[in-house]
Every structure is written in structure tokens, then in C-alpha cells.
Amino acid sequence: MTSIRFSVILLGISLSGFQLQAQDGVLDLTTLANYASQPIPAYITRNNTPGNNAITNAGATLGRVLFYDKRLSRNSTVACASCHQQAKGFGDTATASTGVSGTTGRHSMRLINSRFSAEVKFFWDERATSLENQTTRPIKDHAEMGFSGTSGDPAFADLVTRLSAIPEYRVLFSMTFGTSTIDETLIQRALAQFVRSIQSFDSKYDVGRATTADNQPFANFTAQENAGKQLFLAAPGPGGGAGCAGCHRPPEFDIDPNSRNNGVITAFGGATDLTNTRSPTLRDLVGPGGQSNGSFMHDASLTSLDQVISHYNAIPGDNTNLDPRLRRPGGAVQNLNLNQGQRDSIVAFLRTLTGTAVYSDKKWSSPFNAIGELTLIILPPAAVSLQNNGNGTATIACTAAPNLPYQLEASTDLKTWNPVASVTSDANGTLTQAVTVAAQVFYRFTYTPPTS
Ligand code: HEC
Ligand code: HEC
Questions:
Q1: Residue among 308, 327, 336, 351 whose CB has most ligand 2 atoms within 8 A, to mutate
Q2: Is the C-beta atom of 303 inside 6 A of ligand 2?
């Protein structure tokens, strides 16, 4: 069950208010978390945000609720977050993830820094043409979330009907998009805004990169980490490196959009699959404690970073879609002949690409409490200002949820309330209204959620 809490502001001779404690399962729309203007290092330049879907604090907040809401699956047991877990870099350590009707056809992908890639197509095989397009595919997948409209499943339209009946969503969509009429495009935009907001730039690598170019040793790195960085960057060849940067391009470590497959060609079940040409960023392969967020690759076949390096050290077999960068002149598949020390240094370098905040920051965690409840705060508990304008009027101002229509009401006895004005908050949530100064008048803002 969910509920909306309508808090009340009273003002009279003196201002009164009360402070709510920040609680699990309470989403305060009057103080939205910062998703829209997070600091991004100057050396990060790739950004796949489309012009019509910039991140807003309201939109990413709605996306967060959708991402963690199990009601987006047929039988209300699976959310996006079931397979994209914050503690695991928004991935899953299971080889295949469990959906409403069976398991996934590929290994789950980490969703960190999805925004900062030149490749705008998503999934291991890049079948989604944009992040927006991607976000409702798991919902429509029979095995994953089960609104497929086939195999006895409800259709996506049934999900729209389900969400439209939930008052909280009518409020959140109104706040974000100015309409409580929910449709697939708006669901996609909100989910994509939340996914794009998930960023990780507080790694050991970022500390070094902030002052030093990639091809110079970082002062904060060990000799082994610097050696691994050089091997990662340098092209293969006599006395050369491992050539990783040719496809996983620093400082984003996003995949080159022209990449073909890397020689990992087995699908779950053993069939050959040559189509997997995308990788998530190589940031956050391991968590802040050094624990693996893997296994790695679309088939989760490489269970450690050492196995990953072993794979590239000697590509195990040829195929017709193998990336030419993994061949040597003459056509033979790559054999780097790296010694164990070199392999260890590349692993040590990869471990420097892990951040901290993205694993714990509440703005990316579940807004629901342990039993799946969510309460929205729509009116601020206090922090109302009353500015006497000196000409018989005063201005009431406070911060509420952005872009919502509120009603200002007045009372002399705190029992009977009369409407004074309708006031719509601005994009920052600011509500202002001029009133006539009079003794012993109390004011309150009220909010009525859309009924359809
Ligand atoms: C049952 C598990 C499961 C659920 C639920 C799920 N995903 Fe995924 N997700 C996966 C798997 C597996 C992949 C890789 C699939 C593939 O490439 O074929 C993936 C891939 C993705 C990608 C592509 C990342 C990239 O870098 O290309 C995004 C984005 C994503 N999921 C977002 C979501 C969102 C948003 C939801 C909820 C609407 C969701 N997922 C629900 C398992 C899941
Ligand atoms: C020719 C391009 C290319 C080169 C060079 C390359 N990779 Fe990859 N890498 C890929 C592709 C494509 C994938 C996704 C493969 C899949 O899952 O089928 C991938 C996947 C990975 C993954 C798994 C990511 C995950 O989320 O599971 C890691 C780790 C990785 N590469 C590390 C490296 C390292 C280290 C090097 C250098 C030794 C390297 N790669 C060189 C193209 C390349």
C-alpha cells in the first residue's frame, strides 16, 4: 500500500511548522535530490543525452520510483533493481538473472555511467536504438517482467492502466511532465533519466586523471598500477601493450561504437552468438571493497579479471565477426604473450576504476520501505517566509514540489478555510502569492492530486 501525506502549512501572527524526520519509504518532493547538475569532471566529454530528454530532478526522481517498483512486473515480484542492484554496480552477480517467468538470455549489465558513452545503442548486441528505447523492453519481455501481451501475459497497455490507478504516479507524472496521463514514451523518458543519472567519478583513477594525462604516470598510483595503465593504453606489437584502450576508451572507458566481437561467442545453452559487440564501461568492474561485480561478458563465462586478461592474452578461437584489432598482421588471432606480472598489473589498473558514492548514495537507492510502501511529501513542513511589503500586502513564499498546482486557503478560526488563490509552483518548486495583511488570519497551501 502507498499513501500521499498532505502536510499543512499554517501561518498567522507567527509562523508555525514541524520537522519531519527523513524516513525510509518517504519521498520528499519539496527537496528533490540533485540529479540534473551533478559535478562531471572536465575530462569527461562523451554524453549520449538526447536533446529532448535532459535529466531533471523531477524526472529522475520519477524514474527512481519506477526503477524500484515491482508493480512494473506482471505479478509484482520483479523490479528493474532486482537485476540491476546498487550494491553490485547496478548489475547482478548471478550468471543469469531471475525474472517473472524464468531467467534472462544474457548476463545482466552494470548501469554505471551509461550516459557517458559515444555508443548510443544498448544491450550487449546493441539491439536497442537508444537508452529510451531500451528501458521498456525488459517490461515487455515475457521472462523478465512479463507485460509482453503474448503467452498469456498482460499487454503494456495493462501496465499503463495499472500505473494510472496509483495516485502517487499521477502526482509524479504531473510534476515531471505536466500531465497525469501516463504513456510509454513518458515512462521511457523518466527511466532513461534515472539510468543516465547513475554516475561514478570518484575512483582512484579519477584522482590521478584530474591532474595528469593518461600517458603520464599518476602520482597517486603504485608502480604496478601505472605499469598496468601503460599496458592497457599501448597498442599490441613488439614491446607493446595489450591494446585495451583501442576499444574501451579512457577516460570514460566506454566501448568504441565500431567494435565487433571480442572472441567471447558462446550463448547461454552453448549455441554460437557472434552479435555481442557492446560492453558497459569498464569502470566499477569491482565494488569499493574490491569484491567482484562480475562475472564478466554477455555469457558471464569469465569469472575473474585474471580470466578476462587470459582471454585477451590468447584469443581462444576465430570467427567471421571478430574485431580486426584482435588479429595480428597476417590474420592470426591475438596472442600477446603477457607474463603473469604484466597480467597482474592490468588487473591492478582495472581495480583503480572503481568509485564509492554510487554504491551508497540514497538518491540511487530504493525509495520504498522494507514492506514496499512509499509516502510522498508534497507540501513543505515549514520554511515558509512571510515578507511584509509595507503597502498593506505581504508575500507568502515557500518551496514545494515543482510544477504542481496548489491552492492557498485562509482561515480566521482554523476551522473554516476559504480559497484565496490557485498557485502553481515553478520548476524550482517555489510558490509565491501576495495576500492582504490582516490580523489573525491563518494561511495554508493544499494540494489535490489528479483524479485521472
Ligand atoms: C530479469 C532481470 C532484468 C530486469 C528485471 C531488468 N533488466 Fe536490464 N538487463 C538485464 C540483462 C540480462 C541485460 C542484458 C540483456 C541483453 O543484452 O540481451 C540488461 C540490460 C539493460 C540495459 C543495457 C545496458 C547497456 O549498457 O547496454 C539497460 C539500460 C537496462 N538493462 C535497464 C533496465 C531497466 C530500466 C529495467 C526496468 C524497466 C531493467 N533493465 C530490468 C536484466 C534485467
Ligand atoms: C576489439 C575491441 C576490444 C578490445 C581490444 C578489448 N575489448 Fe574488452 N570487450 C570488447 C567487447 C565487444 C566486449 C563485450 C563482449 C561480450 O560480452 O561478448 C568486451 C568486454 C570486456 C569486459 C567485460 C565487461 C563486463 O561488463 O562484463 C572486460 C572486463 C574487458 N572487455 C576488458 C578488456 C581488457 C582488459 C582489454 C585489453 C586486454 C580489452 N577488454 C580489449 C571489446 C574489446
A1: 308
A2: no
For the chain, how far is it from start to end, CA to CA, in angstroms?
A: 19
Between the CA of 279 and the centroid of ligand 2 the distance, in Å, is 6
- Angle ∠(137,375,399) on CA atoms, nearest 5: 100
pLDDT tens digits, 170-221: 999 999 999 999 999 999 999 999 999 999 999 999 999 999 999 999 999 9
Instruction: Tell me how far apart the alpha carbons of residues 123 and 131 are, in angstroms, rounded to a whole number.
Output: 9
441 Cβ contact list (under 8 Å, min separation 6): 12, 410, 411, 412, 435
Nearest atom in ligand 1 to 138's CA:
41
Ligand nearest to the CA of 257: 2
Nearest residue to 449 (alpha-carbon basis) of 182, 61, 180, 65: 180
Cα distances (angstroms) measured from residue 153 to each of 70, 98, 158: 16, 17, 10
Angle at 68 between CA 40 and CA 64, to 5 degrees: 35
- Sort 293 into a burial class: Cβ within 10 Å, 0-12 / 13-18 / 19+: buried
pLDDT in tens, 14-64: 223 333 445 689 999 999 999 999 999 999 999 999 999 999 999 999 999
Does the beta carbon of 265 sit less than 6 angstroms from any atom of ligand 2? no
The number of C-alpha atoms within 13 Å of 57 and in the hemisphere containing its C-beta is 17
Q: Rounded CA gap, 136 and 63, in Å?
A: 12
Distance 145 CA to ligand 1 centre (A): 11
Q: What are the distances in angstroms from CA 77 to CA 23, 72, 146, 157, 276?
A: 24, 9, 11, 19, 29
